[in-house]
Design a protein that fits this description.
Blueprint (H helix, E strand, L loop, with lengths): L10 H8 L4 H13 L9 H9 L6 H10 L30 H14 L12 H12 L18 H15 L3 H4 L3 H17 L4 H24 L3 H18 L2 H17 L3 H12 L5 H17 L3 H15 L16 H14 L3 H14 L5 H17 L3 H18 L2 H14 L8 H9 L1
Helix pairs in contact: 2-3, 2-4, 5-9, 5-11, 6-12, 6-13, 7-9, 7-10, 9-10, 10-11, 10-12, 11-12, 12-13, 12-14, 13-14, 14-15, 14-16, 15-16, 16-17, 17-18, 18-19, 18-20, 19-20, 19-21
Length: 444
């Protein structure tokens, strides 16, 4: 299975790097934790190095100080399981648990806020993601309770303001939403801080966790669209933790579905299929099930598994038309016949059914609302690919050129990446109308 980042390191060194701490800094923070108890710590940078490099295990009391120094819940400390209790040591994934939400959110925010030039000391393995999905699929967990201790009480007006503002930011068209990434980041950090430090009743806690999940999902897509895959994965994982705390299985399935989409994008179809199978075990709303079946069909088709892919497509079509008295989850409210047609066409294209695929992609493109520019750009690249398979380079070049111009206008580098993946296939048709213009535009 795919390893999302290749650098391996000790979990303690990883957490130091997340917080930009030197070994001296960490030793000083451990000393301060001991001093708050009226004690002294003999930890220095050499001792920290022994823990990270030489495999030395810190004393149980010192492990508590380490947790405090790294702003991790002390409930996580398991002295006999050093360093495995440190979040992220299991393949870069924080395990689900009653104290896991804040840890996952802080870890995701730390990763997302890293400067691009910094090295990321993190590996997120497909095996670890699958294990996390299996734990979620098993259900259970501790019901979210009121948080009766905290710096200040979190009132309804504060949560309502954050909910309304988040909806407004996320409701912007793609071309404008590219300008508010920092605001969405700040909203997520604010919500994470309220969950960690605020005082609130159970109803408010549920709203905060649901908002954290929604924001984490939105910010993850921003990072994913710009190729920041580790940050995106950590944010979707944090969203899963937040959703798990609310007890909303459809919201949790949304995060697994997005992680599966990312895995498929990175050609790790084994992980993608596994995540989707786990997600479908608990997904309840028909529209949500339709989207997950559609993604499953795409990843199965990419592996040439024709019969399972066709069964998944049939299930996606059936579920999209199903009626229910339950409200439509916001995270899949955009799912439509246009998406079903185009993604079905792309699955059939992968299975070699070119003519039928081309027709479905063209039909879906015509059905897509004008407000969904980013999706239109992606669909145009699918349309270009289907024209290429039909040996229609002029039409392919027209669709690819439109996709490239659109992606640059709205700030959608993921769509531009899809166009660039097609450029090699255009080379044999350099004399066809529009092809050289496309190649020149891509080089500009």
């Amino acid at each position: 299975m795919t390893e999302y980042v290749t650098e391996h390191t000790h979990p303690l060194a990883y957490h130091r790097e997340l917080k930009s701490l030197t070994r001296v800094d960490l030793a000083n923070l451990i000393g301060e934790a001991a001093k708050r108890r009226g004690l002294r710590s003999g930890t220095d940078k050499h001792r920290v190095r022994k823990w990270e490099v030489c495999g030395v295990t810190p004393e149980a009391e010192t492990q508590v100080y380490i947790a405090e120094a790294l702003a991790l819940p002390v409930e996580l400390v398991a002295p006999d399981d050093w360093p495995n209790w440190l979040p992220g040591s299991d393949g870069g994934v924080v395990p689900l648990g009653p104290c896991s939400t804040v840890t996952a959110l802080r870890e995701a925010l730390s990763t997302a806020m890293e400067r691009l030039e910094r090295r990321t000391f993190l590996t997120i393995s497909g095996t670890a993601l699958t294990a996390l999905a299996a734990a979620w699929a098993a259900g259970g967990g501790t019901a979210l309770a009121a948080q009766l201790q905290g710096d200040k009480r979190v009132g309804d007006d504060t949560v309502t303001l954050l909910e309304d503002t988040s909806r407004q930011l996320n409701g912007l068209v793609t071309e404008q939403r590219q300008h508010v990434t920092a605001l969405l980041d700040a909203h997520l950090e604010t919500v994470a801080n309220l969950i960690a430090n605020g005082r609130y009743d159970r109803a408010t806690g549920l709203r905060l966790h649901a908002l954290a999940a929604s924001l984490a999902q939105t910010v993850a897509w921003h990072r994913f669209d710009h190729g920041h895959h580790t940050a995106a994965a950590k944010l979707w994982i944090a969203g899963l933790h937040s959703a798990h705390a609310t007890g909303d299985p459809d919201l949790g399935a949304a995060m697994l579905g997005d992680l599966a989409y990312q895995a498929a994008w990175r050609k790790d179809h084994t992980t993608a299929a596994s995540l989707l199978h786990h997600a479908l075990t608990r997904t309840e709303h028909p529209a949500a099930r339709s989207l997950l079946h559609l993604r499953l069909a795409r990843t199965l088709a990419s592996q040439g598994e024709k019969r399972p892919a066709l069964r998944a497509l049939k299930a996606a079509e059936h579920q999209l038309g199903a009626t229910t008295g339950r409200p439509l989850p916001a995270w899949c409210a955009w799912m439509s016949q246009a998406d079903l047609a185009v993604d079905s066409g792309q699955a059939l294209l992968d299975l070699g059914e070119t003519r039928q695929a081309h027709q479905l992609i063209s039909d879906g493109q015509a059905l897509l609302p004008t407000t969904r520019d980013k999706t239109r750009g992606v669909f145009l690249t699918y349309q270009a690919a289907s024209h290429l398979q039909l040996k229609e380079p002029e039409r392919a070049a027209q669709a690819a050129t439109e996709a490239l111009n659109l992606s640059r206008r709205i700030g959608a580098p993921r769509c531009e990446h899809l166009v660039r993946e097609l450029l090699l296939a255009f080379q044999p048709y350099s004399s066809a109308n529009g092809v050289q213009e496309l190649l020149d535009l891509a080089a500009a």
